[in-house]
Amino acid sequence: MALVGVTDIVARLDPQPGPETYDRIGILIDDAEEKIRRAFLKEGRFFDSEVLVTPWLDGEAKDVIREMVSAAIIIGPNAGVRSASSTTGPQSDSVTYADVGAVTFSGVRLADAQKEALGLFVGAYPRGDFPAVKPWPEWESR
């Protein structure tokens, strides 16, 4: 069940990518949807079921997929580049890489802000229903 099509992505980008990139955009859309489904599964939830019963989730998922794919297309081969410089004189090039949270070298990335928008947990939260702590025995005798 594709939530976003290639034309949805292409229509929102400026400058618009050429038809030669449509196959890659389709692959990135599939990757983004798979990452979202996997994130839901890691929390013991099923994305396809929740989309049907949660009215806002469909729209949020479309927005997140568009963001993920657009970032990968716009940044392209410059994933992780923080700065680049070039000198024409006796040929000098320099590229500095940094850990950028929007994309990976292989394509799309589901960032924490996007997980939060989808209603997924971000960070460390308790995952159990534990009983209340029992008091010290000497407190029960009072």
From TrEMBL:
Cited InterPro entries: Mycophage_D29_Gp19 (IPR018963)
Short name of one Pfam family: Phage_Gp19
Protein name: Phage protein
